[in-house]
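In response to a reviewer's request, we include the raw inputs and outputs for one of the modeled complexes. The two entities were modeled together in a single run.
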Amino acid sequence: MTALAAALASPSLSQVGAIARRAIVRTARQPASVIPPLVFPMALMAVNAAGLDSSTELPGFPTDSFLAFALAVPFIQGALFSTMNAGTDLARDIDTGFVNRLALTAMRDWSLLFGQLSGVVVLGVFQAVFYLSVGLVVGVDFAAGPAGIALLLVYAVIVSLSFGAVGAWLAYRFGSGETIQALFPVLFVFLFISSMNAPRDLIGVEWFRTAATLNPVSYMIEAVRSLIIEGWNWQALGLGFGFTIAIGIVALFLASRALRTRMTRT
Amino acid sequence: MSAAGNGIEVEQLVREYKKGPRAVNGIDLQVAPGEIYGFLGPNGAGKSTTVHVLTTLLPPTSGTARVGGHDVVKEGPKVRSLIGVALQEAALDPLLTGRDHLRLQATLQGVPKERRKVHADELLERVGLADAGDRKVQGYSGGMKRRLDLALALVHLPRILFLDEPTTGLDPQSRTAMWEEVARLRREESVTVFLTTQYLEEADVLADRVGIIDEGKIVAEGTPAALKAEIGRPSVHAIPEHEEDREKIAGFLAQFGEPLATTRDVAVRLRAGLGLTDIVRAVDANGVRIADLELRAPTLDDVFLAKTGRTLEGAQEEAEAEQEERRA
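The model returned the following structure tokens for the whole complex.
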């Protein structure tokens, strides 16, 4: 048996796989969890593209296709939906006692966290493929080419993992689906005060420009956007990946700490 | 009796909640390997907290507990590998099928991959869910959920089984089916069973020994027969035909034994040497009419009453009222 096969057969990886499979199955069986993350970001993009298309004529606007400019937003918006779904599902498991059921097995604590997050990642990649496909169908050119598309999918993995970890932390910390749903609009504020609809240097209102500059979500959007409309902008990619990974590390740390408190088994 | 093997040993176990009462208040108990131990008490008596401590879900505030020879605090993973648990709330995922649940549980419990499917089929068959195994749990009845919960607890062939009120809310048919399966597990597989219940009949029918818990303390322990024999004498229960005769009946019945606190009827625990005929004569002599007169052998409820001064039903109502008050 190769080292990889041995690793894949290890109990911990089987546990992660089993939890991930459950997360995917239960999401797939709830159309209300699958359809909104696909449809709403696309609908918002279509509305924005129709209403803001003329902004491409502004001097300094980086592309003549607002659709290409706006296509970056669904990737982040979809990841925010993943945050809420992962958090709400986990909170429900705590509330119903399902976490106790799992705690009574030989499962390791981190298997629960990473299993749940693996499910979120699979769904995040599925969403990303959908957004990419829609983009290609409506004629968006990917400036970074096939390698850029591949990197975009890698980014989808990282952003789903990071935002999913935020959702997991909220779930373990508060243990209530209602609390997480109440926090969802707060998370969305970060999206709306970002550079989602205009390049930061073209935002006319000063406080908004400052807020967008301080907002990490702007850099996440700009990393994706750079692959679509610019090609290989290493600074944008570095900032986008950097912020996403940093958020992921902090969220994973907080989530694993909250999980230890939540699973009080001896 | 020893906790080594498949037994349970508890010494001076205490569990306090922050800002709450002492849910378990210094209990001692021993369960022998292969025994069915019934833990009987009203809501809020400390049954579920005890189960949570013994199954490693809650650390005790003080005292020790060993399950299968392993300390529940220091050797949690070893304890978990030996036990199967069906908690009070059958926490199932409504979107998964029965078979999905078994597959997940088997993987998490480390059942070898090649055994999982066969084992799931066997368990579904055994708990009578073979036809419903591929249906989502959201369509299951309460009894089906409980049976699936039991199957999940058995997935890794545990030697000790904790069942926390496994039949609460079930119809009589499902309850009987559950009793039969629990009895079979003990009889054919020598599984030790720690069963909490608020039903006297359940403890009476299933348990080899019963521990009665009230307000966090064990107030009586022994075989159902021994506990009832401790009470010894039967009781007489009379329901007056006319409500206004209640006091009069209570008055003359008192000369036959000690009055019992009941709500529906007038009752006394008979003194030795007296029988139903003595009561019938007295009723006749006093010229009152009785709608119903019954001589009852001692029950576990009588044991509870003798030990706590309340009936189990009354204690249950008190606990529910307290919970309501706390919620309000």
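As requested, we also summarize the result in words. The longest strand of chain B covers residues 22-31. Chain B has two domains: 8-226, 233-297.
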